[in-house]
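[Automated response] Your request has been received and processed.

Submitted sequence:
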Amino acid sequence: MRRKFMTYAAVSVVTFSVLTGCHAGQTVKSGTATVPANSSPAIQSPVQSPVQSPAIQSPLATSPPLPEGAERGFVFTDENGIAIRGADPVAYFTEGQPVIGSSEFAYTWKGATWHFASAANRDRFAANPEQYAPQYGGYCAFAVANNYTASTIPEAWSIVDNKLYLNFDLRIRDRWERDIPGNIARGNANWPEALRDFRR
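Generated structure:
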């Protein structure tokens, strides 16, 4: 069963799909954000500008050693080291959509810089990063389920049982959602060994 909630704003149209029936007790949210060409391009493409202000450093920023042969870090970042291409991870839970953050509200965790739309969101993340950070370090959930890693876009998101998952694009997100329990089980089994094979 699929229910859609349409929200219209001056700069974006957001579509939500709430899926039920994957398995008992499981809740799923996913959505897309369409931004006009004359608006900020940050939600559609990698962040182009470097961080302008120092990021707050997490006291728990260290990660376990990467698996042998892995060449990338535990968190997927753009060329400037920014996670989720600058999208605020907390906003997926509070706003139900990808929201581009600001370097003014930056936080460093697991070797990546995370941007937030407000100081409040940054502080919520700092208090419990694991609650808000995307699974598999923000790499494509479909790819990890198939034992490799790939890049992601902020729009291709799903929240399953209060955990954020990102995918390569909307088409891959839809494929991943065809078997959410199975893909999550395979992804959990493959992570972090899947870091050995980053494809794109």
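Summary generated for your ticket: The chain has one domain: 47-196. The longest strand covers residues 102-109.
If you did not submit this request, please reply to this message.
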